[in-house]
Structures are given as C-alpha cells and as structure tokens.
Amino acid sequence: MSRVCRSCGLGIMLETRADSAPSQRDAFLVIDSSLLVQAMSWRAETLLGVTEDSAINRPVMQLLVPADAEAGGPARFASALGEAAAGADEPVSAFVRPWNTFGVRLRARVASCGPPRAALVVLEDEQARRLRVVQ
Fold it and tell me: What proportions of the chain, in percent to the nearest 5, are helix, strand and coil?
C-alpha cells in the first residue's frame, strides 16, 4: 500500500496547528499513540540516517532519545508524545538526539496532528542554523 497519494503525488495529508506545522526545510516524524513511527519526511530520513520504509512501525525510542540530562528522562519525551497523540492542545518543546549519536542536540517541537490522532515531531537542526553578525 503506497504512502503517497496516487492522484496528486504529494503524500499523506495531516492537520496541525499553524505554529507547529513544519516548513519545507524541516525534518519531521509522525508518531502514533503506541509511540511507533508512522511517517517521516525526507529530511528526517537524511538527518537520522534511516529510510522511512525501515522506520515505519518501529518505536520512536529506537530513533530518538532525550538529550537533556535534567529533562526528567525518557518519560518526559514519551509523555509529550503520548499527550500529543491523544490530542493535547499545546505543543511542547524538548531536546532530543539520534539514539546512537552523542554530542548532537536537536530541538523537537511536539504537537498533535491528524486524522487519525498522532504526535507530530518537528526536528530543528541547531547546527544547520545560520549565524549572523549582530552589531
């Protein structure tokens, strides 16, 4: 079964808050209430070094883990995912890292999306941000 719309070729269609929607440049994942990956963007595939086909139905913790030592551990990130998948109103921000990489921190915006209800995780690559001189 194809994950891309056969008529338009633009992929799956989900709704989320305007302030949580990923841009064309953002890497993102869609996580269901069982904390399993259900979709991911091409940029997320590149950033995490995994194809969407191999990531589908895998636990998100096999791809991303919390990066903050004081963030309350994996329970806080997992809780944010579960609440978003249940339809939480407010997005949550957390720092994560690829499960097998140390020294990399990515800000993750976790928000509700759907239908069906799921968590949208938008990854902001801090290293990809351009620095600018402030005078």
Answer: 20, 30, 50
Question: Is there a domain that residue 43 lies in?
Answer: yes
Q: pLDDT by residue for the chain (135 residues), tens digit each?
A: 455 666 777 677 788 999 999 988 899 999 999 999 999 999 999 999 999 999 999 999 999 998 866 555 556 788 899 999 999 999 998 889 998 888 888 889 999 998 889 999 999 865 555 445 566
Q: Which domain holds residue 35?
A: 24-106
Nearest to 109, CA basis, from 94, 89, 97, 119? 94
Of the candidates 30, 26, 98, 112, the residue with the CA atom closest to the CA atom of residue 65 = 98
Query: Is the preceding peptide bond at 115 cis, omega within 30 degrees of 0?
Result: yes
Q: What is the DSSP string of 5-56?
A: -TTT-S----EE-TTT---TT-EEEEE-TTSBEEEE-HHHHHHHT--HHHHT
Q: What are 8's two structure tokens?
A: 């338009």
Q: What are 112's two structure tokens?
A: 């509700």
For residue 92, give the CATH number of its domain. Answer: 3.30.450
